[in-house]
Each structure stands twice: as C-alpha cells, then as structure tokens.
Input
Amino acid sequence: MTNILLFASTVLLWGTTWIAIAFQIEAAPVPVFVSIFHRFALAALVMVAGLALMGRLRRPRVWRFVFAQALCLFCCNFIALYTATTLIPSGLVSVIFSLASLFNAVNARIFFGDRITPRTLVAAALGACGLLLLFWHDLTVDFDISVLKGIGWAALGTCFFSLGNMASRRNTAEGVPPATANAWGMSFGAIALLAIIYATGNTLVTPPSSTYWLAAGYLAVFGSVAGFTAYLMLVARIGSAKAGYATVLFPVIALAASSLFEGYQWTPEAIAGLALTGLGNLVMFTKVSFRPARAVA
Output
C-alpha cells in the first residue's frame, strides 16, 4: 500500500507541475536559469528548515553522491528540459522524457548490474506509444535544426534525470535518507544555478508578479519537496526502473489539468493513447510472467 501511495503521489504532484511551470513562465519575462533558481532556493529553504525543526537534519556520511544528485536532479536536467521547451512543443518533450524508465533500466544495468527484464521493455514501449498518440498533434511539426536541437536537449535532460536516480540509489546504499539527500542536494543545486546565472551574464531579478511567486511556491513545495521525496523514496523501495514509469503517467495528469485550465480537447488518438499508458502500467506492476512456457514431455 505504501508503494502505491508513493507512486500515486509522484504522478499527481509532477503531473500538475506542467501547469504551474506555464503560469510561472507566462507571469514574468524571467530567464530560465533564474526561474529554476527561485524554485529550488525556495524548496531548499523549506526542506532544510523543516528537517531542522523536526531535529532530523543530518550531515551525510558520504558527500560525493549528494553532489552528483544535486547537479543531475536539481540543476542540469531542468536547464536542459526548460531549454527544450523553448525549441519544441512541450508534448514532444514529455514523450522523450517518458523514456526515463528505459534510461533507468540501462543505467541500473551499467552502474548496479541490474537485469533488464522483458516486463520493463514491454511496459516502456506501451507507455511511449501511448504518449505518441496522446501528443500526436503536438508532434506534427516541421523538422529543422531547432527541432533537432530541442530533441537533443530533451534527451540530455532525461539522461541527467536518470543519472540523478542512480546517485540517489547510491545515497540510499550509503545510508543517506532521501529527505536528507534532497535537502542538501536542493541547496547545492540552487548554489550551482546561482553561479550559472552570474557566469552567463544574467542578473538575479525578483519579479513583482504574485502569480509568478504562487507558481514558484507550488513548484518548490509540492513539485520539488513533496514530489522528489516521494519519488526517491519509491526508487529506494521498488527500484529505479519501476519508479521511472511514473514519468510515463504524469503527462496524462498534465493533460487533465490542461483540459480544465487551457481548454485541451480530447481526441480519439488521445483516448487510445491514454488506454495504452494504462495498459503499460498494468504490465509493469501486475504479476504476469513473460517467460516462455516449458514444453511438457
């Protein structure tokens, strides 16, 4: 039951962050680096203050994987994904990001020797095909160099996300709880973003828009603090490949939110895509054997 609650929480929380990101970007003309910094600076403040008040703020015994998690999960992947959305439709970014479960399976094989199961491949394929149908209209773009760059940025962001998952697994193995790794990781990620802001010649602006800060607060508290903690606890409990399948389902929640706030219209292709993503979810989590049956003499 705990795994189900963590998985559902991850999907629901991250599924609603797309709308919040759109609100934040539209509310004020702020550089991408600055918006991401505001998100994780607020998230780090909440995490560190919360753990300190509960008497649970600890220094990690091993720091190197906390730094790796900070750069991969709370800095580089968001820079890449935000940049991708400036070049290609967000639906296409989501389709590419949905392959995180495959990235996780491959990286878990490389770094931990995990076996890539047929169940994982089938579920990921069904989920990716479902998202292709869900975002079919967004995918009908004229391919040019900017589109190819956008696809490259989206793939790079997904790769960083997956590597962050691997760093989180190492932190868990070293006895560093997800909440502790997140608190320090978000802090270091915010510091890295601040350095990038000034290194690229930008300035740390503070928009007066209340919508911007409400969106940033939602992204910090729910999308980052609650969402990443739930997700990384799930990675520690069921493994990175299964937990990564949440990235296939949260765009479905994003579309539901888009129907309410942006007037998204469901098409037959989108409904078929929703059915495929649900089928992929069943394949990933139900007890069905993919081994061929043995012949009986």
